[in-house]
Amino acid sequence: MDWIALDKQWLLALNGSQSLFLDSLMKTLTTATTWIPLYVALIYLVIKNSNDARKVVLTIGCALLCVFLAGSLDDMVVKPLVARWRPARDPEIGILVDIVNGYRGGRFGFFSAHAANTFSLAVFLSLVIRSRLMTTALVAWSLLNCWTRIYLGVHYPGDILVGLLWGGAVGTGVWYLYGKLMNKTEEAVPFVSTHYTQTGYQYQHIDVVVSVLVFTLVYAIMKATFSIYI
Q1: pLDDT digits (tens, 9 = 90+) for 106-124
Q2: Whole-Å CA distances, 226 to 21, 144, 203
Q3: Whole-angstrom distance between the N-terminal and C-terminal Cα of the chain?
Q4: Radius of gyration (Cα) for the chain, nearest Å?
Q5: Is 230 strand, coil or helix?
Q6: How far, in Å, are 7, 63, 171 from residue 60 at the CA level?
Q7: Average pLDDT, rounded, for the chain
Q8: DSSP conformation class of 68
Q9: Higher model confidence: residue 73 or residue 220?
Q10: Confidence at residue 184, expressed as pLDDT on a 0 to 100 scale
């Protein structure tokens, strides 16, 4: 089976639409600055649920390590080395790909740094926090980001799949490192309470993060709606 040809067929089947609303929504959701409130909320969650500065630095440092290993190395090493064209720039099918406001991304797209970055964070934080609600919200956030990349024609489904696999591996590996380092700084104490997760994160603070995520989605939807009439 020709997997590359199949990848291109799936891309053309899933990419774009005739909806101006979806065009605007996808462009907003794929923009990194849209998610700044979510990142701030996650930092707030870590600070409010850490008993000393060392834990704050370790948790945030490991999250940044996820981003570096998952996405930055991809952009600096893998994409130039593999040199697979993004769909919107592919000489073979580029003319068939729907694009939004001329957005095509950089030259090369294997693998997706958006997928790797967001999923590595989702996996790492889910393992650290141990909240079903948080896990569901962060995985949904990552997959939503992945969908925007296919919709906008800047990544093939294969780019996304490999990015998710790599991001999951990075998130798990960094969590393992986090656990080793945590054991050297403090004894792990399991929390047994209806107000805390088993790792000591308060549910009320998790609710804040999820609320910020929901409000960000509402903002993106409202912005897309207004863009149709402006």
Answers
A1: 999 999 999 999 999 999 9
A2: 9, 21, 34
A3: 47
A4: 19
A5: coil
A6: 36, 5, 13
A7: 93
A8: I
A9: 220
A10: 64
Would you say 37 and 220 are in contact if contact means Cβ atoms under 8 Å apart? Answer: no
- Bridge partners of residue 196, in order along the sequence: 202
Task: Tell me the pLDDT tens digit for each residue of 51-67.
Answer: 889 999 999 999 999 99
Taking the C-alpha atoms of residue 102 and residue 88, their distance in angstroms, rounded to an integer, is: 10
Residue 45 is which amino acid? Answer: L
HSE-up (13 A, CA, CB side) for residue 197: 21
Which amino acid is it at 176? Answer: Y
How many angstroms separate the CA atoms of 228 and 162, rounded?
Answer: 35
How does pLDDT run across 184-215, given as a tens digit for each residue?
Answer: 655 455 555 678 898 989 999 999 999 999 99
Residue the block writes with tokens 């790599």: 166
Alpha helices, DSSP H, located in 15-87: 20-30, 36-48, 53-67, 73, 79-82
Q: Which two tokens stand for residue 178?
A: 């986090």
Contact 141, 118 (CB under 8 A): yes
